[in-house]
Amino acid sequence: MTDPNVAGGVSSVDVASAGVADDSAVAHKPRSLGGDAWRMLRKRPSFIISAVIIALVVLIAIAPDLFSSRPAGFSDLLHANEGPSADAWFGYDNQGYDVYARTIHGARASLLVGVFATILTILIGSVVGIVAGYYGRLVDSLFSRVGDIFAALPFVLGAIVILTTFNAPGSNPGVVTIIVQVVVSIAALSWPVAMRIMRSATLVAKQLDYVKAARGLGASTPRIVFRHLLPNTVAPVLVYGTIALGAFIGAEATLAYLGVGVRPPVVSWGVMISDARDYFRVNPHMLLFPAGFVTITVLAFVMLGDGIRDALDPKAR
Amino acid sequence: MPQYILRRLLQLIPVFFGTTFLIYALVWAVPGDPFAGKCGQVACPPAYIEMMTAKFNLDDSIFVQYFKYLGNLFTGDWGETFNGVSVGELIGNAYPVTVRLALIAVAIEAIIGLSAGVLTGLRGKGFLDNLVLMSTTFLISIPVFVTAIVLQIVLGSELGIIDASVSEDATIGELIVPGIALGSLSMAYIARLTRTSIAENRHADYVRTAVAKGQPRSRVVGVHLLRNSVIPVLTFIGTDIGALMGGAIVTEGVFNINGIGGLIFRGIQNREGATVTGVVVLLVMVYLLVSLIVDLLYAVLDPRIRYD
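Predict the joint structure of the above. Result:
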């Protein structure tokens, strides 16, 4: 993260150095909060591990052929239900599919759902949150109540209702349709969280002197929002987004497991877990390998989010 | 304080109507024939369609339908499914099991989470701290159904310690392992929350004063420190009770528990609109009520918080 604007950077350094020993702040050139955070992150082993895992998963999603010579549809019924071997590292499933090849090729769909759902959640939540926080009063009450309405729906339940409403059981929607539906339903049920974070960050930032100064100088609303408010409110939302991305990959798997999410012919980790649903008691490897990939990916994003939060929090130093 | 309660109650009203209407519209205003597949392989006879249309007010606009439904609800009538089974009865059978499961899960997560959090918060950095931090991150990352399935395979099918599926009356002993699976995620959050909170308050002035005036350590930690640190944790546990009462569709499915989660999942699959709306209305009410109680409890527990 580069220094987004001078006013925000300087004030956060003041905050940061107030609590710690003063000599370091005097001796060195003042660094921005972002610069400080980056220096701190590089020293954390958990950050390095999670960054490597995420880079690897992204590489697998972009170029699955680098990791597996077999296509996702490779099937050898002679070996069906076989456990892990040198030939197929993760074994074969009940239809003779190579579990390793499918896991590798499934990364793309799982990651896509996670990334798009996160972008949509953050986008809706941030816009609504910043508008509610900035204008306050009636607008704030209105948007907050709308957020409460969506937040009162339990996540899994809400997603099942939405997804079954648009696809009657037994119907077969297209590949793109179902992915879009899963993404939209995840975002529709999660945006209130992003909105609340953004709203409270805006409420705090709005009261700061440089925002008042900017308004006194006659800056327009878009200028105040984009130049002064956003750079200072975006950090907590980004931390939430990182952790949420992991959580949404898990949610994709959960919805597919329940049979309402992404479904064949798309290959995703959730679809594989869903396929394994009726066979995992006999062939646990069918379930455990894709579930393990989901867990490790989610773990990496949660660790990354934790690290960024600690690094951006001046109080923690 | 009374003003605050009143304002919170007023805020609940639009949320209640909004959420229930959202679900009602999603379930009933879907394009397509509501009777498709309801009468087996043949098309439904016109008399049946006529009867059901009248019963569910399907000819009215969605708003009229919704308010007629709410009107019935306030007189205690939860409606009937397409087969004529009373929804109130279905809920009455399933809900006690779900409540039992939720309470067991909350008890487990509170006991383990709090003790792990207090231990690591007091000790500070070290092996135990890293262990708890790593295991909580791990628990947060595993989807609940994976935890449930792995517990079921290992403890149920492999070791034979528990029955792989829970019997009809779901005794407390049978629900412990599902409770662990259900509560594992929140357990991790509680441990982390307690740890942060204790670590923050450990060096507070009132703790130092308590030590200086010669209080035994158990009293310093148990009364002074814990009481101040546990407030955010209690808030979390409160909202979690609200969420878990909403049924654990996944956990109940894996362990074959006849709770509200299974009821609503079958309701959605079979397009039983009355069951789905009924259960969701109940869940939303429970959730809103619990979050209201948590908010009010906050003020009681921490006199420093003032609402005006």
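The mean pLDDT of chain A is 77.
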